[in-house]
Amino acid sequence: MATDYILQTQHLSKEFKGFVAVDKVNLQVRRGSIHALIGPNGAGKTTCFNLLTKFLKPTSGVILFNGADITADAPAQIARRGVIRSFQISAVFSHLSVLENVRVALQRKLGTSFYFWRSERSLAGLDARAMELLQAVDLESFARIPAVELSYGRKRALEIATTLAMDPELMLLDEPTQGMGLEDVDRIRQLIRKVAAHRTVLMVEHNMSVVSSLADTITVLQRGAVLAEGSYNEVSANPAVKEAYMGSSDAELAGAH
C-alpha cells in the first residue's frame, strides 16, 4: 500500500544542458526502514538527493512525501515537513561549543533562530534537550568544548545530533562515513542504527560494509537510472550490478566485513 512508503518518486529526472543526470527514477522508501542509494562514481546519487530536498529542481517527474505531492515545495518547506538532510562535508559551527551547535538547531526548530538579541540565559531552557541529543550520539562529555576540537568522526556525529534536533521524520544522510578510519566508521554505523529505530533513513553510502550491515533495501543507480533494487544479498548477486562495479573490482561490492 502507498501508506507503507514515506517517500516515493515517479519518473524523477534531471537534465543539465542535454546531459541526463537522473533518468526516470522510481524510488519507494518504506516507512521505518534504512534505504541505501549506491552506485559507481557519477551514477547520480547526490543529484538525486538534491532533487529530493529541492536544492535542485527536477526537469520532470513527481516526488511524494507521506502521499502528498511535494515536487513544487521549496527547500525550507521540505524541511518543515520533516525531511532533513546532512551533507558529504561536515557542516558544524567550528568555534561554537558542541552544545551550542545543537542549541542553534533547536532554535531553528522553534522558529527563534534569528533572535540574536536574546540573552544566553534565555536560551538555557534548550540545554536539557540539547544534552539529551548529545547523549544519543555519545557526545555528552564533549558538550562544552569548541566543535573545532572534535575528531572528524565526532564532527559527523555532532552533525547527526543537529539533524536530530530538527525532529526529522525522514533523515537523508549523504556519505555519512566518507573519509573516516575504521574506528569512526564503526561509531557512525552504530549511531545510524540507533537513530533509525524511531525514524526512516535514506542514505547515499560508498562503504559496502556499512551498507550491507545497515540497509533493509538497496537501490543501485548507474548513469542516473535504477539498475537494480533489493536486499544486499539480492543486489550483490545481480550480474548487472557486478558489471557496473567491475571498474573498482567485485571486492568493493562484496564489502569487507
Q: What would you say this structure looks like, in words?
A:
This protein is an alpha/beta fold and 257 residues long. The chain folds into two domains: 2-82 and 168-254, P-loop containing nucleotide triphosphate hydrolases (Rossmann fold, 3-Layer(aba) Sandwich); 89-160, no CATH class. The chain is 35% helix and 24% strand. It contains ten helices and ten strands. Helix 5 (152-165) runs parallel beside helix 6. The mean pLDDT is 86.
Total beta-strand segments:
10
How much of the sequence lies in strands comes to 15-25%
Principal-axis shape = globular
CATH topology of the largest domain: the name is: Rossmann fold
Strand order of the largest sheet: 6-7-8-3-9-10
Helix content: 25-40%
- Look at the structure and give the CATH class of the largest domain: Alpha Beta
CATH architecture of the largest domain: 3-Layer(aba) Sandwich
The figure for the number of domains is 2
Key terms for this structure?
single chain, 257 residues, alpha/beta, Rossmann fold, 2 domains, six-stranded mixed β-sheet, four-stranded antiparallel β-sheet, 10 helices, 35% helix
